[in-house]
Write a structure and sequence with these properties.
It is globular, with a radius of gyration of 24 Å. The chain is of the alpha/beta class. The C terminus is likely disordered. It is built from 19 helices and nine strands. The protein has three domains: about 200 residues, P-loop containing nucleotide triphosphate hydrolases (Rossmann fold); about 80 residues, Helicase, Ruva Protein, domain 3 (Orthogonal Bundle); about 100 residues, Arc Repressor Mutant, subunit A (Orthogonal Bundle), CATH 1.10.10. The longest helix has 17 residues. A hairpin with a 2-residue loop joins strand 8 and strand 9.
Amino acid sequence: MKSSTGRWVSGIDFFNRETELRILESRVRDNNHVLLTGQRRMGKTSILRELGRRLEDEDWVFLFADVEGATCPEDVIAQIAQAAHPVRSISSRFASAMGRWFTDNIEEINTLEFGVKIRAGLDAGSWRRHGEQLLRNCAEYDKPVLLVIDELPIFLKRMLHNDGDAQRVDEFMSWLRGALQSLGDDSPVLVLSGSIGLGPLMRRLDLPDRINHLYSFRLGPWGRDISIECFQNLSNSYRLSVDEGVADAVYETLGVGIPHHVQSFFARLRDFAMMQERDRVTVEDVDEVYRNVLLGASGQNDLVHYETRLKEGLENESYPLAMEILAEAATQEVFTPAARQCLERLYSKVVDGTAGRIADALEILVHDGYLKSDNARYRFPSNLLKDWWSARFRDHHTPLEKRRFEGKSQERMQ
């Protein structure tokens, strides 16, 4: 088992998602379209890649289209076509259907060139027709097709930001739903996934019915036993000696078994031992590496990703509210109903619809795994995220309730 801190994993490196894989495979084999959800770094891409690999072994076709960089529907159709390029029967028929827009011999161009040339032949007036043709070509292939569109919510959010309204989001999602339904049981099986929540976005735009044809499946964190087993397997693979209690200490320190964080902690501990010129890790090393490495400069890239994705998932007016909520929950250990009332009062003079925006922000923060709710009180399930946010804000975040009292004092003085 190889240590992996940034790439998706498959085959022998794919660890302990057999139950989830069986459920997903069962839904896919029954021709159900799926919405795969789960917080960041949970391994959504890895489980989809592994599902595709296993189905390919059983004579399926697996198409994986990452649309994170897409800005319009034409880009998405081109990405799907690019994913289909290696399946010559599908790509050749699709290229032929484009007529004069595509005259090259697909045998003579690589996958990237194929995608670029397809994109050149698509515009706002033709992408629906050509997209339907592409899906029809997949449906008519003599093998079942699994189509994964990854990072679709990021694409929709970018299109929403560029257009300023939800019309094109509505048009694209309505088109996708209708195109698949028109093909009936012969349709390629669709799986949508992404690192920001599609459900909250559709509800915020009042378009929840555009995804009601999808079977929602949430990928959760590992429990204690699985997290410890993964850490121990990695230690054995690299012949790294770890003292008794190290794996338990890693899990307790993290607070939740997010696969990427378990992998990252192991990699940092292994590097630390090598720098100390020893092949053994102690329980004391766990705290030192956590404080000085995972939360230090070298660990920032992993954690900044969370803030980047949060900004992509929220409207501009809601983002500062979400950051206030996270700062409060990190520095005060909890975001309380009283703090929520204070936040609403503080921002109501400068942000329209503050109460609704706070509710939306909380929904996304819970959906995407930043916070968990317990009787209207919100806490970080991940110590790593809590401690990172706390380190950023503890020196300049005034608790919300204290700001309320300071505001009242200033009013009395006036």
